[in-house]
Amino acid sequence: MSVKIISVAKQLPQYSRTTEEIIPLLKVWLTGQEDRFQRKVLKIFENAGVEKRYSIMDAHEVFLNTSFEEKNDIYARESIKLAESALTKALEKAALNPQDIDYIITVSCTGIMIPSIDAYLINKLQMKQDIVRLPVTEMGCAAGVSGIIYANNFLKANPNKRAAVIAVESPTSTFQLNDFSMVNVVSAAIFGDGAACVIVSSHEKDEGPKIIDEAMYHFFNAEKMMGFKLTNSGLQMILDKSVPETISEHFPKIVYPFLEKNNMTIHHVDHLIFHPGGKKIVQTVETLFGSLGKNIDDTKEVLKLYGNMSSATVLYVLERFMDKKLPKGDVGLMLSFGPGFSAQTVLLAW
Q1: For 272-283, how does the pLDDT look when each residue is reduced to its tens digit (9 = 90+)?
Q2: What's the CA gap between 186 and 171, in Å, rounded?
Q3: Global confidence as pTM
Q4: CA distances from 43 to 23, 26, 31, 38, 312 (A)
Q5: Whose C-alpha in 26, 250, 271, 298 is 20 to 30 A from the C-alpha of 57?
Q6: What letters, b where the CB count within 10 A reaches 16 and e where it falls short, cover 290-320?
Q7: How far apart are the first and last CA of the chain?
Q8: What domains sit in the chain, N to C, each tagged with a CATH number?
Q9: DSSP letter assigned to residue 173
């Protein structure tokens, strides 16, 4: 029995702005700040490698002095809509009904909801009453891959079942209006909102790339490198400037033993399905693999078109590969990084 990814679908929020359109709003936000600082912030946005961002709220709402409660209310309302659309699209791609799903995993870290999104989806789509639920709330950008790992383990133990992994994120909801730190600026420059759904199956008749293996790699003593701090004004981003350098140092320990375990080297990998954490991380990965003849063009394109949508982003990259109808035998390596600090990997074979 093998576990396969049978469909992937994305869902974008209704609002969007190009970087060019955001600049005038930034200038208003920066009023009163030193000229040098203002120029630096504008340069960060212009050089972030993100041409367009989508959001669950209109641009002017992002800059309103709304409370954590008000922004979280928007997050809760819109996340349910995005999740439902992403799941419905993925089911349609796989020619399945909501009742065909046995295990539902929802991942998100940019808002707080109890009950979680999956509970609303079960009711809205009249899914199975005995469906198994797993909401994942604190894995950050890595959670898209984490969700696939959890689905894989459930399905390996349960033949002829299917799982839906739904990632919904709104980093826009975490923007701190009165925080002019570089962390708040950089996160606003690279992040955007979005949702995606992956359908994973252990049904023999279902078709798609097989999950050959998966792994998690944990960086010791790096808990404060990335995450959120819960403050009275909302979720305040934690993002250490050493992240790209730290990833670069650990890359050989993450990738090569994992491939070796599966009797492979990097030369056996045809496709790199990497999470675009930001321009510097993308450049770091490109430097590491460019000399080996590998490219991360799809990763760069997703960053340019949508920004970093936390856990959902790597699923946007995966969708691009699924839509290419790759030849049988091709191998893909999925990789995401997230708070902890950790790396999550999945090895796929078409």
Answers
A1: 999 988 888 888
A2: 12
A3: 0.94
A4: 10, 11, 16, 9, 26
A5: 298
A6: eeeebebebbbebbbebbbbbbbbbbbbbbb
A7: 15
A8: 4-201 (3.40.47.10), 210-349 (3.40.47.10)
A9: G
